[in-house]
């Protein structure tokens, strides 16, 4: 991407609209923050079934102001909308494929019937272009889980085909032990946007050709590279289906190297805030839907680890850094016992970058709503006497004989938080 | 008028020199690595020639009798770099050389691409030496000059000893794109003048309008894949041929072309390409005595080629193509014309690695026989390997499926 453009547009829009100092704690800022959180998927009740509708389409996605790329998005959003059900609910998800390529949905961590598991050619046929598939299962077990596409998974998941599914326990032991009112779901992703672009183009291109043949009933296993048995596979190799050469028609000849890192589809400075109040406990559901490890660290706090892969821990333990590995979910409880604005980020700092530019990526912040306005004055509470009014250099005559306004020079209107887009 | 072009041309070519000014390098402490593309092609054939009639044009392969030679001409090496510019534009430079025909007078290598371009969604500006607009389509011959006399507007400044004079020029070119399919181009060129090799003034002007179906839409469309029309003018200094003529007299040609996907089938693909060239000629030339009068006579040329491509496992397997060309010189006495039949076969033995075979028969009649000989049979057998690799991919192609069908991202 063009870093210069990104910097310019990012700085202007964020400073001007989204993070204007002093407004962070206003209701309007909290409303804006809702767009950065997972969006609930409504359902219809049909007898004993809770019926949801998901579709997949190609969308131009903007993880941070000034940078866009093509993605695959459930219901036009990344991550896909959050499915929230109660333990034991009968869940029916009608899935519509609006793209020109195949997909399935795998329900990661859910005890679905085998035929609902979403693994192409193992549990089901792929959901082909303009086709539908209805998934039905019982919502078990409790906890934080997610769904994702299982076709062309390397590219499809990177492109954005994932979303959270929360199975709530009416008798939740975590809530009993750590009473909370508010909770957040953070879905982490890692994306090689160049790989996504190249591979999406290749997949779409191949499918146009294949659709042409399918309509004429001339499709064959070799072209599909899906074989009924080992003998057919061996025969195809004799017939010229040569795996080393197949690379050139099936995928880029290199593995993805993630260059964008997102939380709920957004990269800093568009990442969500976690709002908290002094004395409050919040629950944060962490989901890693990407292929990178995220060593998540919260400043100024130790948090309680309360669930692992959705399974409540009988003996919660405290940490301030956890390795969220691919496919993993953790639930943590943060106790509001240290008022301030605290960053929460991947301590593998390569992942707090946008296309290599620091800061970016999955950097976000825990924000205390009860921060007094006075504490937002950065110079007053910086701890550095040099910048402390009345104690430092303020008013000092410099060589040019003019009073130096250090606050203005360095801090603008002198309030937190700042949007740092360059080191 | 030509002086203005000289000044404009000089100014545009001199501008890149400012980048080397002392001090400017201090602004370049950190460079972004651009997209880098390598393109390499090797075409190596054994050629057999059987010629009838003596040709006055001093090209050894036109000598009467039989010959066998090794031919690696038209092999090339290209390197390009692209990056995003400010305000949604992209910039690209291409450097490259090819290997010309033996005894062409161009030396061991010919620098056919020394070019920079800038482009955005609707505009392309190209400056430098690159492929000229003397052809609209592209035919399925083994080498792109195999049917040159029928498929290109021939450079009237050339001595006829090489084909590159017709194919490449120093260009100033602007293209406006409408609807991502209609390309309207205005161009000015400096074609190589064999009599004044150090003259870089503008001696060509023209324009074209082409509807071009994006390659990624091949399976979506039927029949018409490309259709175009162009208008080319060579600004002649005619004092050598006609002392009383206006020194600014122009030689005008028109090209029309079309490509039809007769059977756009992923396994059995058939297409037909056709192009016609009308060269208005100079009315004062009534006989063809040398290569200059050959290119400046009024002529009408047509060339068509039918191709069958067999694809196996979504990649080419083999290809058979056959073409025919005819060129008539209506202002010249003695029923002067020429025609060509050409056929080739390509069999893919590995990724982009082909066994190739081509046969060509060319017949010259009337006033052309003393210049080009009577006829020629040519058989070529060999290997071709093309290699293309993009490093540090950063953005999408103009005609990618994602850009065309799912919204354009700069």
UniProtKB/TrEMBL annotation, chain B:
Q: Where is the signal peptide?
A: 1-19
Assigned keywords, A-Z? Signal
Q: Which domain of life is it from?
A: Bacteria
Query: In its UniProt entry, what is this protein called?
Result: DUF5723 domain-containing protein
